[in-house]
Amino acid sequence: MTTFHDKVIYQAYPKSFKDTDGDGIGDLKGIIEKLPYLEDLGIDMIWLNPFYNSPQNDNGYDVADYTSIDPLFGTWEDFDKLVEEAGKRGISLMLDMVLNHTSTEHEWFQKALAGDKKYQDYYILREGKPDGSLPTNWESKFGGPAWSKFAETDQYYLHLYDKTQADLNWRNPEVRRELYKAVNFWLEKGVKGLRFDVINVIGKAEELEDAADGVGKSHYTDTPIVHDYIQELNQETFGRYDDVITVGEMSSTTVKNGIKYSSPKRHELSMIFSFHHLKVDYKDGEKWTTMPFDFLELKKLLDEWQRGMDVGDGWNAVFWNNHDQPRANSRFGDTENYPVETATMLAQTIHLLRGTPFIYQGEEIGMTNPRFDDIDDYVDVETHNAYEEMKRKGLPEQEIMEAIKEKSRDNPRTPMQWDSSKNAGFTTGTPWLKVPDNYTTINTQNETISKQIRDYYKQLIQLRKDHKIIQEGSYEPFELGHESVYAYIRELDDQKLLVMNHFYSEEALMDIPKALLDMKAEFLIGNKGERKLESLFKLDPYETVAFLLKK
After folding, report:
1. What is the pLDDT of residue 215?
2. What are the structural domain ranges in the chain?
C-alpha cells in the first residue's frame, strides 16, 4: 500500500495557471510547460480542478460530460502528454470528481427535460406543495431557493448549488454505476489521485422535508447512507488499486464523521478536507462580513481536528488555501510589512501538522488577494449573487465591496504570477480574470520576497520526506491558551518535535518547561535563522521555529 503521509500535493487551477495559446485562459499545455518549476518545488502530485466540457457557470464544477476535455483547456493528446511528462518527474495527477450534481446541459438532464422517465430518475424531482410553494424551504449554497422549475411541468429539480447544477439521485443504482464508470475511465488513463467535490452531501433522504432553520444542511449533510455510498465507490473504483490517493471535500462535517470517512479500516477515503478553521473571520457565522480573525478560535479548531483525527486514526488534508478560499496570508498575517515572515509562518504551521499538506498555486511565492475596487472585475457567480443580495438589503456600496474584497472566491483565482512582464507572464492575450497590481514584485522570478518564500516551502517539503516524525508522529497542543502563538508537539518513539508559530507583529514569550529543556534540542527550521531553545523563548513578529528533541 502506498503511503500518502510523506506526500505534498500542489493544487493547480488550470484556468489561471498558464495560458499557452493567448486566449486568456490557462490550459493543459501550460501545466506541461511548468512541470520543471513544480519538480523543483519538490511536490508529489498535482490536483487539477475540472477541465471537462462545461458551460463554465461555476468554473467547470458544472460538468456537462465527465469523460471529456473541454477544448478551452486542450486535447486528449495534451492530457496524455501531461500524464507522461509529469510521471517522468515523479509527479502524478489528482483529478476533481464532481459527483453530487451535473450541469443542466449534461446529456442526462437534457434527456430528462425531453420527457425520458429513465433520466428523470437520475435527478431529484419533486412536486410543489399543495399551496403552490416549493417542495422544501431549503436554501441554495449560492443564495436563493434550492429548487427550480423543471421544464413545463408541475415539478421542481433540486440544486444545492447554482441553478445550472442539478443534484443527482444517488439512490438510483444506475446513476451510481454511471458515475463509477466515469471514475474508472480516468483511473485507466493513469490518474493516481481523486478529489471528490462536496461528496458528503450526496445522501439525501428519500422523503425531503422542510428544515426548521430554513437552510436544510442537516437534511443532506453527513447522512449515514453517505458512508455506504463511499464504501461502494471505493470497492467499484479506486479501491482496486493500491497506489491511488483520495480526498473528500466535506461541507460542514464533524470530527466524528471525518474519522469515519478517512480511517483506513473503513475503506472509504484516504483523507478529508474540512473548513471550520477558515470561517474564523465570519461575523456571526456569515461569510459576507468583515472582522479580524478570531485567533483563539482558529487554534481551538485546528487543535480539535488534529487531536480528534489522531485519536480516531483519521487523516486530515491540511491546508490554508484553495480555489474557493481567500488567500490566507491576506487573512491571517501582514503582507505589507511582513510578507516573507507571514507566508513562511503560515506554511510551517500547516506542513508540520499531522496530515497531508496541500499547496495552492501562488501561495509558495506569496500571492495575495487582489482587492479589486469594481464589482465588474469579479467573475464568480457566488460573488455576484452576494453583491445583489447585499444591495437588496440596502447595505452601503463601500461596505459591500469591502466584504467582497475579503471573501470573494475570485481572490485565489487570479492568474499565477510568473514574472514581471505584462499580465504576469500568464498570457499574451487578455486574461479571463484581472491580474493583481502587485505582480511586478510578487512573481516566481522575484529574487527577494517570492524566492525566499519558495525556498522555505522547498525545505518544508524535504523535511517531510526526511523525518518520520513529521509523517507519522502523534499530535498534542502546547500552551494552547497563548494569546498570539499556536504551538504543538509531535511525538514518535523517543523523539519530539516542538513547533511554535507566532501570528502577530509584537514580540511573544513562551515558557519552555524543564522536561523539554532537559532533552537534546536540535534546531530544525525557522524563518528567523538558527535559534537555541531557552526557558523563556522570545519570538519575533510572525516568527516560526521548530526544534527536534531527543532524550
Report:
1. 85
2. 9-101+176-380+415-461, 107-167, 471-550
Alpha helices in 212-280 (DSSP H): 224-236, 255-262
Please state which CATH number belongs to domain 107-167: 3.90.400.10
Measured distance CA(372)–CA(12) in Å, rounded:
22
As a CATH number, domain 9-101+176-380+415-461 is 3.20.20.80
Residues of the chain with pLDDT under 50: 1
> Which residue do the cell numbers 462545461 mark?
54
- What pLDDT shows up at residue 2? 54
Rounded to whole angstroms, how far apart are CA atoms 268 and 247?
A: 10
pLDDT for 214? 83
pLDDT digits (tens, 9 = 90+) for 145-194: 999 999 999 999 999 999 999 999 999 999 999 999 999 999 999 999 99
Active site includes 249?
yes
Cβ-contact 375, 397 below 8 angstroms: no
Grid coordinates representing 48 are 487539477
DSSP codes of every residue in 483-511? SSEEEEEEEETTEEEEEEEE-SSS-EEEE
Catalytic residue chosen out of the listed positions 44, 62, 167, 249: 249
| Residues 6 or more apart in contact with residue 443 via CB below 8 angstroms | 365, 417, 418, 419, 420, 424, 425, 450
Does 139 qualify as catalytic in the annotation?
Answer: no
Catalytic residue from among 78, 197, 310, 380: 197
**The C-alpha cell that represents 269 in the structure block:** 477515503
Which tens digit of pLDDT belongs to each residue from 313-330?
Answer: 999 999 999 999 999 999
CATH architecture of 471-550: Sandwich (2.60)
Is the pTM higher than 0.85?
A: yes
